[in-house]
Specification:
The chain is of the alpha+beta class. The protein has helices at 18-34, 48-56, 60-65, 84-93, 138-155, 173-186, 193-201, 215-219, 230-245, 290-293, 308-317, 337-352, 365-374, 385-389, 411-419, and strands at residues 38-39, 45-47, 68-70, 76-79, 103-112, 124-133, 160-166, 251-252, 264-272, 280-286, 301-307, 330-334, 357-359, 379-383, 392-397, 403-407. The protein folds into 2 domains: 15-172 and 228-317, Bira Bifunctional Protein, Domain 2 (BirA Bifunctional Protein, domain 2); 330-419, Rossmann fold. α1 runs antiparallel to α5 (138-155), α2 (48-56) packs across α4 and α5 packs parallel to α9 (230-245). The longest helix is centred in the middle third of the chain and has 18 residues, at 138-155. Bound molecules: adenosine-5'-triphosphate and magnesium ion (MG).
Length: 421
């Protein structure tokens, strides 16, 4: 006999966990809308070429982590490993260039990366994602940071650390990279093998190496922020000025980098305490070169992506207040076959009033009442044949134990009164 288990790195989100997800999605959606972001949904798969360009063919994501396949028309497709490439593709394809700027978009949904699974790291995971497109100035960076910030704030998260850096632009970055390479060549005997390779292939990435032997070299490395061109420097100063004026604390972290040319200026991450090694709950930054790379006109943009599984871990770890999902207040039980048919009719009438209701589907009266109790129904409506012949039902309040007879013609008004419906 075949027995199946879920694919490695995936999760079943069971009913008991859904309240966390529902709350998270509600807070994300309502905060994003309050701040003027509009929802966009793009496909969960796109052409592989889009991600090769948009995420970068030299990145771990594209080189090792994508779920890629040929469809039956022999097209190269990949499950999305992140959202931004698809959102910018949709922006260009749907003519949003002519919309008033900024165009502010948010999304939520699954993403897929073939990674080594561990707590907080999965192969199918979920992100909420936001982009501010079309504005080159730092108010857009600020807006994207404030959205991330306030979502976590509304969720009640504590002890978050905002990490901030600027990695410059194609004007100033080449000079920085040369200086960094010189520094690393001076310490070539100390650094790890990976960094020896990286220093020529993907130099910025040496800055986030985790190996012990590389730490002193990283600590002494030149900082991107020391070598910004005037424009990048002014942009960064203005952004920090807003954050300071708003008294939003952040930590300058010169190790925060993105390896690719189309990422420009601002980079940030949000770290959470207490969820183990995978502590980054959110990563973002500016990508002024991306739209052009995807075949569109030059279009500035800044955005973030945030892990939802990690946010749920924080919710649990920090005992965040998460509302219970509502249960239908009415449970209908019955005694005998005639009553059962009437009970089904009554069930649909109650539902038609917009009141949540369930019916017992098995068992005698005692067992039905137990089911109602176990499922935390507030009101039980009991239909017995004698009462029905008198045109009445029994209404029991499960919280007070109080019981009364209600004429069938008055059920709607009594429910409305009792439930405030
Ligand atoms: P990490 O350094 O943890 O691998 P990343 O830099 O790859 O993160 P991004 O691509 O910036 O992450 O994605 C943004 C956020 O999405 C991360 O901060 C994290 O919360 C979440 N995330 C990324 N990969 C995974 C994964 N495999 N499983 C669960 N969440 C993830
Ligand atoms: Mg990663």
């Amino acid at each position: 006999m075949a027995r199946f288990s879920r694919p490695k790195g995936t999760q079943d989100i069971l009913p008991e966990d859904q309240r966390y997800w529902e709350h998270l999605l509600n807070v994300v959606g309502s905060t994003a809308r309050d701040y003027g972001f509009e929802r966009i949904d793009t496909p969960a798969f796109e052409s592989t070429e889009l991600f090769a360009r948009g995420v970068g063919s030299g990145t771990d994501i594209v080189e090792k982590e994508m779920y890629s396949f040929k469809d039956k028309g022999n097209r190269d497709m990949s499950l999305r490993p992140e959202f931004t490439a698809g959102v910018i593709r949709a922006y260009l394809e749907n003519g949003m260039q002519v919309w008033p700027k900024p165009v502010k978009l948010y999304s939520t949904g699954p993403a897929f990366r073939y990674e080594a699974p561990q707590a907080g790291r999965y192969r199918q995971f979920h992100q909420f994602n936001a982009e501010v497109i079309g504005v080159p100035g730092p108010l857009a960076d600020l807006e994207i940071m404030l959205l991330a910030w306030d979502i976590y704030d509304r969720l009640g998260f504590k002890n978050l650390a905002f990490q901030l850096n600027s990695t410059g632009c194609p004007v100033c970055r080449p000079t920085y990279i040369k200086t960094l390479q010189t520094h690393y060549h001076e310490h070539i005997d100390i650094i790890c093998d990976d960094c020896r390779r990286r220093i020529d292939q993907n130099p910025l990435r040496v800055l986030d190496c985790k190996k012990g032997q590389c730490q002193p070299v990283i600590a002494a490395a030149p900082k991107t922020t020391e070598m910004l061109c005037d424009e990048c420097d002014a942009h960064f100063s203005e952004l920090k000025g807003y954050l300071d004026a708003l008294e939003r604390p952040y930590t300058l972290n010169h190790r925060l980098v993105r390896g690719l040319d189309y990422y420009t200026k601002t980079v940030f991450e949000v770290w959470a305490e207490g969820i183990g090694a995978q502590s980054a709950v959110c990563g973002g930054g500016r990508y002024d070169g991306l739209a052009e790379l995807l075949g569109g006109p030059r279009t500035p943009g800044v955005g973030f992506a945030a892990g939802m599984e990690r946010a749920v871990l924080v919710m649990k770890e920090q005992n965040v207040d998460v509302p219970e999902l509502p249960v239908p207040p009415v449970f209908v039980v019955y005694l005998g076959e005639t009553a059962r048919t009437y009970a089904v009719k009554l069930l649909t009438e109650i539902r038609a009033l917009g009141v949540g209701a369930r019916i017992a589907m098995r068992g005698g009266l005692r067992s039905q009442l137990k089911q109602a109790n176990r499922r935390a129904s507030k009101l039980v409506i009991l239909l017995g044949e004698d009462e029905l012949s008198r045109g009445e039902v029994t209404l029991r309040d499960m919280e007070t134990g109080e019981q009364s007879m209600v004429p069938t013609t008055a059920i709607a008004s009594v429910l409305q009164e009792r439930l405030g419906a």
